[in-house]
């Protein structure tokens, strides 16, 4: 296909799909390097409390631990007992980084999310949800973000699989754009924009790479990055923390399947995944939102055009990306 500008239905952002910039998608795939497995000896997450980690906030597993949530040793946000207050530095608005920054650590040194058993993978998401629910009563917080960096290209400084939770006093701009776009579409059409997209993608099938009874994984029509994947619950669910166990099972299954497809078909790339959900305050305002997971393999690098314009150039047609990942 010829290069094409595409406008995101939710955010309104423009991106460029330019498959002609890559002779073959496999040229991108070949850039992945063989993963270097760090030794167990010396890993700071092997014996957490003996290596200086504080008392676990939450701990799972009978007898020996299988999963712990602990404070990040190098936090971007810290709990100070008082709420952040907006201030000024000349013309600039500032505030303190009041909040929480925590690690969710699984016991197995060599098992990333795709390699966890179905039960252990489900436990990771239960831990996310349990901790999220604990934040709801904290009036100092505006948003909770949950994310995972796998591999050095994705920002992971420790090999041992771990996930991060950051509870912060502001709503991040990317989330705010998504909320605004969702609200605008609902006001005009009386429909959830994400549900509309899901219905179209499921019927169209070209960009679907995995589907079960309650969740679907697909390559977005407006994909900012090569082989980007979105994973949605089929039910209209605005709030991750309110997701029932049965729906969580569907989501976990779709995420594990998607990660296995990345490893098999893209030669085990580094990646990030993160949860987009509605903010924790003013719940009545966000019923039109639809929580989901975004999964982004680290294959391409932004250059001058992307940095200078904010318009991403994706060298892989999402239809073709989905066809490759379905294998």
From TrEMBL:
Residue ranges occupied by any DUF4921 domain in the UniProt entry: 134-320
Enzyme active site: 162 (tele-ump-histidine intermediate)
GO molecular function: UDP-glucose:hexose-1-phosphate uridylyltransferase activity; zinc ion binding
Single biological process term from Gene Ontology: galactose metabolic process
Domain of life: Bacteria
Stated name of the protein: DUF4921 domain-containing protein
Pfam family, one: DUF4921
Originating organism: Candidatus Yanofskybacteria bacterium RIFCSPHIGHO2_02_FULL_43_15c
Classification lineage: Bacteria, Candidatus Yanofskyibacteriota
